[in-house]
Amino acid sequence: MGRRHFLAGLGLAATADLMTSMATANASPRQPTDRAADPDADAADPSGCDRTVVYGCLLHFLDDPGDPPAEQAWELFEDGALVIENGKVVWLGPVQRLSDQHTADAKVIDHRGQLVLPGFVDTHAHYSQVDVIASYGEQLPQWLDKYVYPAESRFDQPRHAELMASFFLDRMLAAGTTTASVFPTVHANSVDAFFAEAERRNLRVLCGKVLMDREPHAPSHLRDLSVAQAREQTLDLIARWHGRGRLGYSITPRFAPTSTEQLLQMVGQLRQERPDLWLQTHAAENRAEVDLVRTMFNARSYIDVYDRFGLLGPRSVFAHCVHIDDQDRTRLAATHSSIAHCPTSNLFLGSGLFQLAEARGARVQVGLGTDIGGGTSYSLLQTLNEAYKVQALQGKRLSAARGFYLATLGGARTLQLDQQIGNFQPGKEADFVVLDWAATPVLARRTEVATSFQERLFALMTLGDERAVAATYVMGKRHHSAPARS
Ligand SMILES: [Zn+2]
């Protein structure tokens, strides 16, 4: 195929050379044409042209680079161009190869000197927990009772849900994240609010009404009144939102302790009836929780409970999976189920250390999750910073190459959205983030003394956060710009 040929022939050959040639590159100076200079870059073009050329240092992944990272897994164009038409990528490569055909009547977005990456993918977060972030002193079970459930009880008010959805999505875009799989609350209107706000921003997101019906772990005021009604509400929301624009519905049982067997049966059945839907839930986050679930369901393992009810499979995303074993991993891989790894949350709530290498060894697809508000940052750069430390505490490593793969294509694969997003292959939707190597004095200094591109990338994933995000684009349109720095 022409595209494949292009990628294989042009990109990969260039990659190794560029990695080497960039080894001594200085920290990139800010360009006069960047964000501060053109805040209205996306104003309507009077010519009506829908073609855009983005200049910058382009990096994207074609596959999991593994450990140690294999350079064939990514393409890097230091002086690169990305051509977008009607919101989709049509070409990428070195500027020298850009043809007149690509540039004719095209709007130009100049991010030279900055790093242009596919938009980050957050595979697990709760927009209902915006106000819960940074709540002190508890582990999972008590943290839910003390902080989360009181916060979620306010989402029966449509206006509150709308404000929170808006706040969450704007923070997400400010962090460079363009796709997320998100939990709302048990209230149907909380799904409406989230999808409506995501649609207004033209974002590719997954969401679905939280299902919870079991005493005493689901509090009475946040409980589905019956399985039949929970199913009916879910079907109604699916009919309204699933497949509308860029929105996808994810069946969302909160987790095993808040689920009756009847509820899990209903979920398993719905999953079977509708393989086009996603499924998201939590699994094996906290040791006490795991013991509780094994007792409640008389099961060998937490994953076995979900397996028993048919919840495993493609498009099923299980957040955390900190306390699982080889048998669980084998089963997750065999069913093409995925894991959302949420390091800031696992550390903050003292849940445990995720075994990333073991998941890869078992060929389980893994993505990164912020797990707002158990997690402590909206930024996937900060999530990577903590993911590295989680591995370091286990005597292991997470390379920058693998880290940025996890934050982009790895996340898209986790959500089975890699046909649409995750890298810059022609035909993909042009969601991207622009990162500034010199966003802070510390980052600028560290970047300047770095002796390789990978070293610079590692500094960015360790020291970067929202401040490093110069701009975020959705389907080729700018949706966020960092405030101008003096
Ligand atoms: Zn969560």
UniProtKB/TrEMBL annotation:
EC numbers, comma separated: 3.5.4.3
Cofactor note: Binds 1 zinc ion per subunit.
Signal peptide: 1-27
Cofactor: Zn(2+)
Pathway noted in the entry: Purine metabolism; guanine degradation; xanthine from guanine: step 1/1
Domain Amidohydrolase-related intervals: 115-477
GO process terms (BP): guanine catabolic process
Keyword Signal: yes
Function text: Catalyzes the hydrolytic deamination of guanine, producing xanthine and ammonia.
Family, as annotated: Belongs to the metallo-dependent hydrolases superfamily. ATZ/TRZ family.
Protein name: Guanine deaminase
Lineage: Bacteria, Bacillati, Actinomycetota, Actinomycetes, Pseudonocardiales
